[in-house]
């Protein structure tokens, strides 16, 4: 099935059922993959138990099924891959690009200034976070939807955490390791993650891993301009009428709404064929209603 020269994925964190914003990301990554005869994988990013609901993975899969969004291969759970992340962390440690950080999270300005850069593990007591030391700050990539992106990561981001003080692996490390190990070469996701991308590219470069092609979608916001999320009490998507939910998502993505389709299978196969990246609005956000 499919053409392994394109591998895409949808990678929700199971903080709750999918809301409309996450469905838009799921649909766009699905359509872009299918349009290129590619594979579409599902990965559950369950690395942060305090923020998760144990029901969510099953709820998410039920919602995707109801919308006809069928994924290829077995679902991956990040919680089952801790030893893999540990191995890559060791690789980074051997390259001497990691250091322990004891700064209190609340006191750190949005760009970390490198206070702990010269700390050593032997002189630092746990608990500490582990930071990645940026040596080559300039990161550039050509985003499918956003276009050319360029970051001076030292000035704009600062050395960043790869393992947290509570011993949980940071999203930045796990996600790029998984994308590379699963040979994911196209990452289509919401642009709330745009500023994460340079961090993931830095890690990939340090580990000599291939960097996927990225496409960051405009963020779906509510009437008040807030990102749809569990924190803003975004409602779970309505799976009782999947066709109208999918059409709504297609409209937000600037695509034809496939009004003649009578079932999700037909709608998705037509929408996959007709998918045009150039129609996706390239503004920062789109209104969900
Ligand atoms: Zn520090």
Folded structure, characterized:
The protein is α/β, with parallel strands linked by helices. It is 30% helix and 18% strand. Helix 1 links the parallel strand 1 (7-10) and strand 2. The chain is elongated and about 65 Å long. The model has no long low-confidence stretch (mean pLDDT 94). The structure holds zinc ion. Zinc ion binds next to loops.
In short:
The protein is built from eight helices and twelve strands. The protein is of the alpha/beta class.
Topology record:
Elements (H helix, E strand, L loop, with lengths): L6 E4 L9 H16 L3 E6 L11 H11 L9 E2 L4 H13 L3 E4 L27 E4 L5 E6 L3 E6 H4 L3 E4 L7 H11 L4 E5 L6 H10 L6 E5 L1 E3 L20 H11 L11 H11 L10 E3 L2
Parallel strand pairs: 1-2, 2-3, 9-10, 11-12
Antiparallel strand pairs: 4-5, 5-8, 6-7
The structure holds zinc ion (ZN).
Keywords:
289 residues; alpha/beta; Rossmann fold; 3-stranded antiparallel β-sheet; binds zinc ion
Number of strands: 12
Q: What is the terminal separation in angstroms?
A: 36 Å
Counted up, domains total: 2
* Hetero ligands: zinc ion
Helix fraction, binned, reads 25-40%
Helix count from the secondary structure assignment = 8
CATH first level of the largest domain: which class? Alpha Beta
Q: Approximately how much beta-strand content do the residues carry?
A: 15-25%
CATH topology of the largest domain: Rossmann fold
Q: Which CATH-level-2 architecture of the largest domain?
A: 3-Layer(aba) Sandwich
Query: How many whole angstroms does the radius of gyration measure?
Result: 20 Å
Order of helices and strands: EHEHEHEEEEHEHEHEEHHE
Low-confidence stretches: none
**What characteristic shape results from the CA principal axes?**
elongated
Oligomer status: single chain
The structural class is alpha/beta
